[in-house]
Amino acid sequence: MKFGSKNKGDSSAKATGSSRKHKKEQEPEKPSFFTTSNSDQNGTEVEASSLFRWGDKKEEVPVVPATTGRFFPWSKKKQEPVVVAPPPPPPEPVAPATPPRSSSSMFSFGGRKKSIYGSPSSRSVATAPPTPSPPRKSNSKRVEHETIYDEKTRRNCCSCKCFIGCSCLFILLAIAGVLTWRYGPWFQNSASSTNLRVQSCPDCCNGSRSNCKLPVNKVIFPTLHRAHASKDHSFIGASHDKQFEDALVAGYRGLQLNTCVCENILSLSKGLLARDEALGLQNSNMGFCHSACGTGVRDPTQVIENIKNFLDVNPREVLLVDVDMNEGSENDLRTAMRASGLLDYVYIPDSKYVEWPRMEKLIDKNKRLLLFGRGGSLRSCDAPDCRDGILYFYDFFAQTAPDGSDVTSCDSTLSGEIHVDYFLLNHFQNNAAMLPSPTIAKDLNSYNELSARFEDCQGKIEPNLLSVEFWQQGDVLEFVQKQNEKRYELLKLGFSRRGLRGWLE
Question: What mean pLDDT, rounded, does the chain reach?
Answer without folding.
Answer: 76
